[in-house]
């Protein structure tokens, strides 16, 4: 049992490392395909953990600064921790959706390229929407909303990888889903756990967050699948950010 718990802690560390570009993986835990697949189950917990750091910054700085400044600082810390990895992928996905034709395929094949034009505008609008929604909430409510949104974003990744095939898979690999057998169940439990602080705000907030995240995430997923026939790396970030924003909008709609 101790070995099993230690493995889960190490898998969570790997999930957190993958959520944060540049975070070193614990020594002795190689990022093999098997470990990466098994670590996916902790994506909701990793998302909630990063959101908790953002929430702690907001709570601490709100004691000295206006809430708007505290929210901006908290989101800036989150971007620094993750290097904006998900938002950049979100922006690149918007570019590919707008480009069409061969330009769309060319952008998918240049992973080092950042978002341009419509993608940068989408990233700016996403950040502005996050700030506006979080400023409208009390600090405690904003922290609970961040935890829920982070968990829903991670769960959106789990759902896509568990239900959608890769867009560029070939042969037998095209029929393989990138999840472990218990990945969906564990991810769902972690998501529900991250919703507990939001439940203190009210049952309506939980329902609003879940409804917003599911509706927005599914719309983003269906758009991606309709265009590409499966998921892409940028598409995962697109679904994650859309689900997070959907959760925040859902919370605001009922409060």
From TrEMBL:
This is Adenosylcobinamide-GDP ribazoletransferase. It is a multi-pass membrane protein. GO terms for biological process: cobalamin biosynthetic process. It catalyses: alpha-ribazole 5'-phosphate + adenosylcob(III)inamide-GDP = adenosylcob(III)alamin 5'-phosphate + GMP + H(+); alpha-ribazole + adenosylcob(III)inamide-GDP = adenosylcob(III)alamin + GMP + H(+). One of its GO terms (cellular component) is plasma membrane. The gene is cobS. The lineage of its organism: Bacteria, Pseudomonadati, Pseudomonadota, Alphaproteobacteria, Rhodobacterales. It comes from the Bacteria. Joins adenosylcobinamide-GDP and alpha-ribazole to generate adenosylcobalamin (Ado-cobalamin). Also synthesizes adenosylcobalamin 5'-phosphate from adenosylcobinamide-GDP and alpha-ribazole 5'-phosphate. Its cofactor is Mg(2+). One of its GO terms (molecular function) is cobalamin 5'-phosphate synthase activity. It is found in: Cell membrane. Its EC number is 2.7.8.26. It is an enzyme of class 2 (transferase). Pathway: Cofactor biosynthesis; adenosylcobalamin biosynthesis; adenosylcobalamin from cob(II)yrinate a,c-diamide: step 7/7. Belongs to the CobS family. Its main location: membrane. Keywords: Cell membrane, Cobalamin biosynthesis, Magnesium, Membrane, Transferase, Transmembrane, Transmembrane helix. The chain crosses the membrane at residues 43-62, 68-88, 118-137, 143-165, 194-216, 236-254.
């Amino acid at each position: 049992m101790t070995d099993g718990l230690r493995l889960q802690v190490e898998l969570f560390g790997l999930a957190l490392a993958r959520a944060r570009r540049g975070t070193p993986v614990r020594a002795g835990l190689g990022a093999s395909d098997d470990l990466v697949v098994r670590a996916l189950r902790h994506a909701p917990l990793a998302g909630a953990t990063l959101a908790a750091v953002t929430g702690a910054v907001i709570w601490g700085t709100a004691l000295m600064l206006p809430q708007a400044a505290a929210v901006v600082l908290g989101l800036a810390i989150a971007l620094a921790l993750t290097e904006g990895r998900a938002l950049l992928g979100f922006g690149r996905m918007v570019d590919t959706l707008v480009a069409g034709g061969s330009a769309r395929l060319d952008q998918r094949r240049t992973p080092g390229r950042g978002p341009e034009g419509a993608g940068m505008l989408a990233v700016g609008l996403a950040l502005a929407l996050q700030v506006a929604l979080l400023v409208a909430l009390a600090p405690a409510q904003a922290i609970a909303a961040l935890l829920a949104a982070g968990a829903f974003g991670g769960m959106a990744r789990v759902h896509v990888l568990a239900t959608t095939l890769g867009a560029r898979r070939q042969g037998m690999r095209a029929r393989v889903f990138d999840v472990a057998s218990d990945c969906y169940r564990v991810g769902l439990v972690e998501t529900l756990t991250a919703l507990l602080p939001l439940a203190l705000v009210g049952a309506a907030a939980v329902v609003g967050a879940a409804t917003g995240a599911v509706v927005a995430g599914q719309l983003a997923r269906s758009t991606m699948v309709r265009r590409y026939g499966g998921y892409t790396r940028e598409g995962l970030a697109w679904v994650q950010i859309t689900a997070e924003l959907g959760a925040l909008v859902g919370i605001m709609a009922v409060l």
